[in-house]
Amino acid sequence: MSTGSYTLTRQRRRTIAITVDKDGGAQVRAPYQTPLAEIDAFVAEKTAWIEKQQARVAAGLTMDVVRGREVPLLPGDTMGALQKRHRAACLIRLKQRIPYFANLMGVTPADVYMSNARSFWGSCLGLTLRFSWRLDCADDAVFDYIVVHELAHIRMPNHSARFWAVVGGVLPDYAQRRKALRALQKVLMQRNLM
Prior knowledge:
Blueprint: E1 2-3, E2 6-11, E3 17-20, E4 26-31, H1 36-45, H2 47-58, E5 61-63, E6 70-72, H3 78-105, E7 111-115, E8 122-125, E9 128-132, H4 140-155, H5 161-170, H6 174-190
Parallel strand pairs: 2-4, 7-9
Antiparallel strand pairs: 1-2, 3-4, 5-6, 8-9
């Protein structure tokens, strides 16, 4: 439903939210019961913010999904440029976090590879770990969860209770981190990055 200078979607939610899509359009999500006048007033309040985001889109800028960095995208090769940047950044983060957690867990991976996988964040085969470059979109808590998850598979190549005990021994709050990971996955899917 289009209303004025924005597109309105009614949802089961408690608050009004505004985003600017890749074409520069303002997308508003609001609770079913919120009056249109209240939504219009909220959008009017946010006009300066909306215009700023639209200017970013026009300039070829996008926001990194979770970590909030501005990432310039190259016209005509946006996905390739994005992948290259995230792949390099993810590898740097992995080189910092894998040795830390591997030492803590008493495991030693043999090789670490980057992949373009859309269906998984990481995998472990024997002593070889693979991680999707999309993992770089995660904040540190979720990033560490995936690293610990895959390192735990070196000791326990399944998802048994013993496996989760290994993960929980390192990250007692792993359930919350896993929930945040699912939220990230939804965001990436909405942006056609997964």
